[in-house]
Design a protein that fits this description.
With about 300 residues, this protein is an all-alpha fold. It has one domain. About 70% of the residues lie in helices and about 0% in strands. Helix 9 crosses helix 10. It is globular and about 55 Å long.
């Protein structure tokens, strides 16, 4: 199967220009500045929007204070504010950074999303649905068996059915945006840069997974290993299927299930704790699940046709 990754269509458009160290070195600082400006603009837009929706700046200022204090958002409005900042700030940063990379390397921005002529929305929906159906029950079962689990957030965020439906819709839409932002950078741009120098898929996968896990700044080894497995699995999906669409769907589905049924949005980092030995089983099983999902889509003809995977 590694041979299939080495022949990935996602890396077929790489040219000598992608191996120019000067352009890559310039991308990092210029892209970082562009990303920071985009985050400030997006954050300001969210602040203004909530100020208008709340009838004044007092509500938005209170919500910004909550974020500055890393307090847990309570209620629909506070959660919506945090999710909007997460989605639009991260989305703006990802687009700005990869936009700079595209300009410097003379390539289309779309090429960091997919090798296909256009973005494959069906493949994204397939990633969302397959993950929810195949891996989702395992996540829910693990939460149900955890005596310390806080309970389903969707039941606590609002007392009414309308509020809960609004929360569910908001979580799905905004976490899709946030997942697309992370995939654009860590699978799209990073896989292109790494693949330009190294075609050994094991190195490409390991580097993508390690950086994806490290950027979360979680002090716990178990969390690092789980995110490492997730990052490697998402990179596998991208290389195997010729684009980030399926990985975006799977990534978003994981986060959506967590925020709907497992644990609420938290701003404080996870406190340090001991290493649970079951992580040594959970992380490889998670990686195997991600690989299996990608292989099902790549090898099963009906899914290949419906998702238009054959277009790559």
């Amino acid at each position: 199967m590694l041979g299939e990754l080495q022949r990935s269509s996602f890396l077929d458009d790489l040219t000598p220009a992608d191996r120019r160290i000067g352009r890559i070195a310039l991308t990092l600082p210029v892209g970082a500045i562009a990303a920071l400006l985009a985050a400030l603009i997006a954050g300001g837009a969210v602040f203004v929007a909530f100020s208008i929706a709340g009838g004044g700046t007092a509500t938005a200022e209170r919500l910004m204070t909550m974020i500055g204090q890393a307090a847990t958002p309570v209620g629909l409005t506070a959660t919506a504010f945090v999710l909007c900042l997460l989605a639009f700030a991260n989305g703006g940063m990802a687009l700005a950074f990869t936009g700079v990379a595209a300009l410097l390397h003379h390539r289309r921005l779309l090429s960091y999303f997919t090798a296909a002529p256009r973005f494959r929305w069906r493949l994204l929906l397939l990633g969302l649905g397959l993950f929810a159906v195949v891996i989702g029950p395992l996540l829910l079962a693990s939460a149900a068996l955890d005596p310390k689990a806080p309970g389903a957030p969707i039941l606590a965020v609002a007392p009414s059915l309308g509020g809960r439906l609004a929360y569910a819709a908001m979580v799905v839409v905004l976490l899709l945006v946030a997942a697309a932002a992370e995939e654009l950078v860590f699978r799209g741009w990073l896989l292109k840069v790494t693949g330009a120098f190294v075609r050994d898929p094991r190195i490409v996968l390991a580097l993508s997974g390690a950086l994806f896990s490290a950027i979360h700044f979680d002090p716990n080894l178990d969390a690092f290993l789980v995110r490492l497995a997730m990052g490697v699995g998402l990179a596998w999906m991208t290389l195997r299927l010729g684009g980030t669409e399926f990985a975006i769907g799977a990534h978003a589905a994981n986060n959506i299930l967590i925020l709907l049924f497992i644990q609420p949005m938290a701003l404080k980092p996870e406190p340090a704790h001991g290493f649970p030995p079951e992580t040594l089983l959970v992380a490889p099983a998670m990686l195997a699940g991600y690989v299996a999902l990608a292989e099902i889509v790549a090898r099963w003809a009906p899914l290949r046709r419906w998702s238009r995977l054959a277009a790559v």
